Amino acid sequence: MDIKDCYYLGRITKPWGVKGQLVLFLDVDNPDEYTELDSAFVEIKGQLVPHFFHLDQMNGNKAVATFEDITAEQANALVGHEMYLPLSLLPKLEGNQFYFHEVVGFKVVDSEYGDIGTLEQVIEYPAQPLFQIMKNGTEVLIPVIDQVIDRVDRKLKTIFITAPKGLIELYLGNINNEC
């Protein structure tokens, strides 16, 4: 399994108890969807290694897990490692909801400016994520917020937006000056 085929689930944060149990931090929006989780890939030296476990308890985004077929010492060696799950396990989203990886490569069309380019990546800043769009070699950054996103058309691979007034012109110039 390649990391590009997976999504980040969380991290093994610390040992718990004396029987080799580990505390997991699940970096997910809805931790309740993971109460039946029984395996994950753990990144070790750049490789994804499958590990099976059972969740002993869960509290919000934190869980205590007992890993199968490893000693307490081996479990402690997993502390600090990141965990991943295959992209195929993500629930399908509809409407204007999307996963960031899902919309890379989509065309972005503004209600006033028209086609502003192709979405290269979603940059995840702590304050808010940004669409990085490239148009003829020029970078355009658009905030990823509900007020900006009008519609996501998966069939057309297009995101329709209404950017804040003047934002696109800062990057691409005045629409009336284009030939």
Mean pLDDT: 91
Enumerate how many helices there are, as a single number. Answer: 3
Query: Any idea what the radius of gyration is?
Result: 21 Å
* Unreliable runs: none
Fraction of residues in helices? Answer: under 10%
State the distance separating the first and last CA atoms.
Answer: 48 Å
**Helix/strand class:** mainly beta
Question: In percent terms, what proportion of residues is strand?
Answer: over 45%
Please provide the count of β strands.
Answer: 12
How would you describe this protein?
The chain has helices at residues 72-77, 100-103, 167-172, and strands at residues 6-16, 21-26, 39-44, 47-59, 62-67, 82-86, 107-110, 114-124, 129-135, 138-143, 149-153, 158-161. By secondary structure, the protein is mostly beta strands. It has a six-stranded antiparallel β-barrel with strand order 1-2-5-4-3-6. It has a six-stranded mixed beta sheet with strand order 10-9-8-7-12-11. A hairpin with a 3-residue loop joins strand 7 (107-110) and strand 8. The radius of gyration is 21 Å and the shape is elongated. The mean pLDDT is 91.
Question: How do the strands and helices of this protein lay out in sequence?
Answer:
Blueprint: E1 6-16, E2 21-26, E3 39-44, E4 47-59, E5 62-67, H1 72-77, E6 82-86, H2 100-103, E7 107-110, E8 114-124, E9 129-135, E10 138-143, E11 149-153, E12 158-161, H3 167-172
Parallel strand pairs: 7-12
Antiparallel strand pairs: 1-2, 1-6, 2-5, 3-4, 3-6, 4-5, 7-8, 8-9, 9-10, 11-12
